[in-house]
Amino acid sequence: MSSFAFFGGVPLSILYDNLKIAVARICGDGKRERTRAFTGLVSHYLFQDRFGRPGKGNDKGKVEGLVKFARSNFLTPVPIAASYEALNAMLAERCRLRQSDRAGRHAETIGTRLAADLAALQHLPGVALEPCETISARVSSTALVRYRGNGYSVPTAHGFQTVLVKGFVDAVVILCDGAPIARHARSYGHGEFVYDPLHYLALLETKPGALDQAAALQGWALPPAFQHLRQLLEARMGNRGKREFIQVLRLLEIAAKEVVAAAVAEAIHLGAIGFDAVRQIVLARIERRPARLDLTAYPYLPGTDVRMTRAADYAALLQEQAA
Predict the structure, then answer these.
(1) Domain membership flag for residue 35
(2) What pLDDT does 101 receive?
(3) Are 231 and 273 in contact (CB under 8 A)?
(4) Cα separation of 247 and 250, whole Å?
(5) What pLDDT, on the 0 to 100 scale, is given for residue 297?
(6) Distances (CA, A) of 243 to 207, 250, 279
């Protein structure tokens, strides 16, 4: 599918090796029993599929030679890239640069010869086929969905619901009623659990005592300012401070971690220790406006003078009551 997008069209026919992802079984008469995934590919792009004979490398000798050329010229030395997307973009650019070269005894460049081939291609369909495996699954009581031997989390509100799982090479996307509710990097281990801590915060808000024991939050890397804020909140409000801290964490559902972390640090600097203050700063940063937390901008508000409680103050109240 990536090659179709690169060339901007679909060949009339394609010769394949007998790879397992395409061929489920080679029948006695030489016909191939296609896999479901490969049948979907052919049906979507409407090309004729052909297969080389088993053990007959000469059926696709040119392909073997081009693979060797690409390995020697594009993958030696081993390229370094930040991601598969970056690596593919690098290889695509090298392919484009090669179009100015000449191959063999041809007088025309590769790009010129390619233009003639592209004119014979079929048009791409209006929508590209998603390169994924699609299965139906059910959310467990712990908000996990099983796919290929591993568990992937979804928001707890979707517990016990039936969902659609799309397994890509590098990602697992989970949908409910046609809308995506979770996306994870795909794990190729077995028996592993892939959590998104944000999926469990709504439930933890009702059970703040489980904050430190929640498996989904173990190893969650948060900036140090978050832990500092929690200490200040719990020192001021006790157990209520823990719930308010979870409310601050839930701001990560609507804003990037960097934005919320900066808002937490600013709130601590201003001495505005509380969820409402952090929320106001986050919203102000999203809306690109100053946060309205400076009381000097509101001179009409009465000032406050908070002092330490003294026994004499209670005595004065008792005297007023006796009078």
Answers:
(1) yes
(2) 92
(3) no
(4) 5
(5) 55
(6) 8, 11, 15
Backbone angles phi, psi at 213, to 5 degrees: -100, -10
Q: How confident is the model at residue 303, as a pLDDT? A: 62
Instruction: Tell me, yes or no, whether 113 and 146 share the same domain.
Output: no
Assess if residue 27 is contained within a domain.
yes
* Rounded-to-integer distance, Cα 123 and Cα 10, Å: 6
Give pLDDT tens digits for 214-234: 999 999 999 999 999 999 999
Per-residue pLDDT of 89-128, as tens digits, reads 999 999 999 999 998 888 999 999 999 999 999 999 999 8
Among residues 155, 27, 152, the alpha carbon closest in space to that of 166 is found at: 152
Instruction: Quote the pLDDT of residue 306.
Output: 67
307 found inside a domain: no
The tokens for 210 are 């489980």
Q: What is the CATH number of the domain that holds 58?
A: 3.30.420
Q: How many domains does the chain have?
A: 3
pTM of the model: 0.76
Query: Has residue 108 been placed in a domain?
Result: yes
Pairing of strands 150-153, 144-147: antiparallel
Domain stop point among 118, 145, 163: 118
